[in-house]
Amino acid sequence: MAAAIAGGAISTLGLLRRNKLAMLGAGVFLALLVVGALAPYLIPASVVRDVRFENKLAPPDAQHWFGTDDYGRDVFSMVLLAANLDLSASIGIIAAATLIGVVLGALAGFVPRLDQPLMRITDIFLSVPNLVLAMAIAAVLGRSVTNLSIALVFVWWPIYCRLMRGQVLSEREKLYVKALQVLGVDRLRIIFRHVIPNAIFPVIARAPADVGLVLITMAALSYIGFGPGPYVPEWGSLIASGQAYIFQAPWLVIFPGAAIFLTSLSLNLIGDWARDAFDPRLRS
Amino acid sequence: MRLLGYIVRRLAGLALVLLGVSILVFVLLRGMPGVDPLSAYITPGLPMSQEALKGLRGELHLDQPLPVQYFYYVADLLRGDWGYSRTAAQPVIQALLERLPATVELAVAAVLLSTAIGVPAGIVAAVHRDRAPDIAVRVVSITGISFPVFWLGILLQLVFFYYAGQLGLPTLPSRGRVDDLDALTNPLAPVTGFYLIDSLIRGNLAFFASALAHLVLPAFALSLIGLATVVRIMRASMLEVLRQDYILLARSKGLPLRTVLLRHALRNAITPVLTTAGTTLGILLGGAVVVETVFSWPGIGRLAAQGILNNDAVLVVGFTLFVATMMVLVNLAVDILYAVVDPRVRY
Lengths: 284, 347
Prior knowledge:
Chain A is mainly alpha-helical. Helix content of chain A is 77%, strand content 0%. Chain A has eleven helices and no strands. In chain B, 73% of the residues lie in helices and 1% in strands. The N and C termini of chain B lie close together (11 Å). In chain B, 37% of the residues are buried. At the A-B interface, helix 1, helix 4, helix 5, helix 9 and helix 11 of A face helix 1, helix 5, helix 6, helix 13 and helix 14 of B.
């Protein structure tokens, strides 16, 4: 009895500790969102456009906190401006992938005729690593940030489709669904009004960690050549263009990378908590 | 005999997956709305003559309906004709096979590293569940998955090559598979294409030392990708095993914790880590594109990245199909091995 209470206390403590980390993650991520949203209004576009070679590759000081790049531009401003593109793209990609995956997954789970075809399609997508498939799709569509985002949505929806299908399969057997069917409620109405809202939480729980993963994947692909070019700040391509000066001006690589790391760490802290919080096996 | 039947059934299933991937790849190359299939063959700024375009159109059967084109495409794939890469100035399949050993050497080193670090870390975390070591392992592994690997790679070069050199400390090489000078003074005749194995076979120790030193930084960077997964699976599986009665029995008959963990628990807990090896390898092959680019490692990933810069869709799509095939084969090998090793698996 005492042992059980002690065990309970320890696991509650553990959960709390994780909660604190998750709170920290959420705070950092919210701050980054605010920065990303406001940066384009607070930083004049001329910071990116104006080339000042007399300032080039200056180390960090009181005026340029993160130093300047090979065009003489302020790296701090560039990193803040890039937050806008990187955050909105990765959140948008996961939102779109979740939407497509949830709808198709619910249909697969609820309409037996659609189940096999949809599952075989996801098999195909899931048999190629995410980064590799996204690379191939974006390469065929042509190098641009828009095409890269489209490619990443294409790669990510099958994960959510599979998850949602599994959830719906078990939800379908519940009594209230049978009752609705007996009452003669329209099948699509049952799916969208009743089943999806009840089954969606474990699927949504994946989203924060996936936003972090998609951010890293996108930055990596833009690092190897899908980036938007020198006049649109993006973290991955900032690193790519800074790499040429790595030994001479390491701040060009260190600060954009730290921004990716911080964002993805905050999302993983939220995601780690969300996975436990929504995992039915861990609920007591 | 039943194992043979299992293998045949698995092979049939895998053939279906590969057929699906070939359709996906074919749609990418020929069926994308608004994308001219011929654009994959034209270097931007270097237009081909109408004559040559017409010849190419006929050779690729672009004048035929899509299903007929697909048939020709698969026939070509099966004959080993995966198209011609402008980037490598070689047939795609030859370019990939030539560079494959470099990538496999790197990926295997990374898998070994992430297992060597991840398995003990997972065990420690499970044994000390919810106490300081568990939380430490958890924090470290979350930090690990949050690291952009290409950034880590560049930072490793900065610290272990540049700063170490500045301070007069021993440095680790930051580019390539082997030192050019070592390759010139102690040339290595290839046997398998794996530098570490070949140099040992030939007894060329200078070459071996150089190749090993070159492997350290990229393999470490790449291993970080799989590390968090290994730790998480090992911890969960170990927690499951530690709950079993035979562990309690072993403990209560007085066996030391160390013996119980290593002799009884580890053997039963490690299988999930092995079965995910195929998936992990796939993730690593994706990561290899990035890591090979950072470290100028002459493997298939760096070639694909160069293909992107050249708009060489034939090569990039060929690389995708190649990686999918490799993943399928590795998964098959893992499953068969698993069925052979673990008598509980029914096939």
